[in-house]
Write a structure and sequence with these properties.
heterodimer; A: 364 residues; alpha/beta; eight-stranded parallel β-sheet; 13% strand; B: 422 residues; eight-stranded parallel barrel; 19 helices
Amino acid sequence: MPDNTNRTTRRAVLGTGAMGAGLLAAHQPAQAAVGVPLRETLPPPAPAPRGELVNVFEYEEQAKLAQGAAKMAPVTGSDRTITDRITLRPRMNIPTRDLDLTTTLFGDAHFTPIIVGPMADQKRFHPEGEVATARGASAAKAAMVVSSQSSMPLSAITQATTQPLWLQVFAGNPRNKDVLAQASSAKAKAAIVTINAGASGAAASDHIDWAGVDAVVKATTLPVIVKGITHPADAKEAVARGAKGVVVSNWRGGSAAALKGTLLMIAPVAQAVGGQVPVLADGSFRYGADILKALALGAKGVLIGRPVMWGLGAYGADGVQGVVEMLQTDLARIMAMCGRVNLAAVNDSLVRIHAALPPAKNHG
Amino acid sequence: MADIEKAWALSPSRRKALTSLAGFVASSPIAAVAQQDPTKPLSAVRRVPGLAEMRTSFDFQPVFEGNLLPSVYEYTAHGDGSEFTLRRNRQAFDWVDIVPTRAPIPESQVDLSSELLGVKMKFPMIVGPSSGQNQLHPEGEVGMFKGATAAGMVDVLAGATASTAKTAVAAVPGGTLWAQHYPIENLTTMQTALSGVQDSGVTNIVVTVDQQASVYERTLLIRNLGGRPTRAAAGGGGNAAAEAAAAAAAKAAAGGPAVPGSVRYRVSDRRLWYSWAYIDALRKVARSKLIVKGILDPEDAKLAIEHGADAILVSNHGGRSMDYGPSTLEVLPEIVAAVNGRIPVLFDSGIRRGADIFKALALGANGISLGRAARWGLGAYGPLGAQRVFEILKQELVQTCAAAGCSKLSDINKTMVKTHFA
């Protein structure tokens, strides 16, 4: 408690009469001179060793310390409101020693269904940008989506990757054909086309540029995944136009800080197209529990965006590996706690969805 | 503390009242004398409240906190993960209203006696198993058993061994002690251990099935104190086991010996073998009643009955089992429905008031278990403190029953409450 609060209270209690003033005067702490601060400002906290961090939010803190809050501002924030409406339903006494989080996506075996999502211009957060991210993701045995707005050459990123690599483009961007032509030299395994974010990634209206999607499907033999689906009708349309996967996502360009999580959008989309193509999701996955809920609701994988950038900004490639491994371990742990030994055992019997707010109570 | 208690403690109207009270007191001649030495350090005028001033279980908590090292306090305070479920356990009581349909009765007419799992109880309350009570008070587990016995309650000894059970039973004549047990993978070892424990005067056995891989993050306490533990704290396998798993996984990834699946993902497999077959094996060794602790699903409740449990304890380990699991109160009704009266259903996780106990009983619990509340009592004032917490909760329960017109346990049923689970 700051000193002036005590002093104010004493003044109120003792009054401003002669006795009060005399007592107060006697009690003034000695000061060297007017304007000398009573205490030193605290030094900024030292960056923590990476091994001490216990959750992904601590990476965000460390990235802000390492890079400065202003630099990290475009990639900060999380939403907890949607995930806080969903509880898990654990089962006891089911052996889970042989936990298996592997899954097959677009012909490749993946160690876990956690994929590093596309984030533009990663040199903002680390001198080696996407190359460091690729190193870290591969060290964690995770696939990576490379943004068409990368700040490092695709060849360098490819060289640093030992895991599946997917290429991202924005629907309607005139450069898409050239980007996708590099797919085979980049050894890319899939193409992701982001809709509704505008050619440059700026926010656009919710009218979907289907012609832009068609152009991408035409320009590549890779499986095309449409990213930015929020409604089952749009998912059906994407599949009808040749998409081999969809990503449930409400990102429309710019900062994601104000976006709500997408968990409750997944089931309707999975019901519409999940039998035909894999449904992935992104948006505020911060704990293994969040990812498990997405899988239970019908997702086959999740993309992680901002937390990977926190890892990159705080500790470079090691940080990327740390964030991804932390999420993998947390997902494995919570599957074990729920009695689900593999992804086939994960379905909607694992979750219960609650109303938006508990009913208001009179506390009197 | 639940939101309602926090809001009261911080409310502006309370602060205004205290300030004007301070002004009133200051104008008195006695205060003037006290004020004559304004340089008296605050510690000399601040005092620890006495046991007789404790009015609710919450009152014990700051005394408990003040008595203990931050790390010991944190062990009691923490929940798994982000503590969503820890908070939800307390919130859930706000989602149940007591709506009495009978006229109030005098407290003297309230008699909540029952026979539960072979024990005649004046109140359907037991002291639940919790570890490390020796860190809370020099008398440790024996002290807790003393306090429970003085309050007429069963105590459950956590991690009971033959020798700890023998010591406790010998130290507290007339007490009733049950033993808590974590599954032991080697069945021969299990048989030897539990034979020894049961030979020592313990009656019933509580087997805990919900701590396979629990992990907790640092609490706000440690963070605000600037403490930075060198490692993430982990339950279940323990931090050392989690790190060993990570090391083994790294070795396996680099071409070393293969490891179980969970270890590949850096999760210790030490407790990931639990099964209902183990409960069958345990049933053969338990001579008296077997209680399965940690049930949160109606299907698991049915399985517990099928595999020989004499009772289940609906519990999420005080929010320390798995984060983003449900509160126990919200799953209690469906579990009670599934059990359909075949075995007693006990309840824990989040009880702080007699009214909380009333709500759990109304939703079908046959009895409740106390965790943190008991620890606060023991750590604050020793065995007498534990006893006083129990007496306070009993008194609050009697008051609630009297106000609701319930003279016996069977009166406390779901017509007495309205739920707002959503």
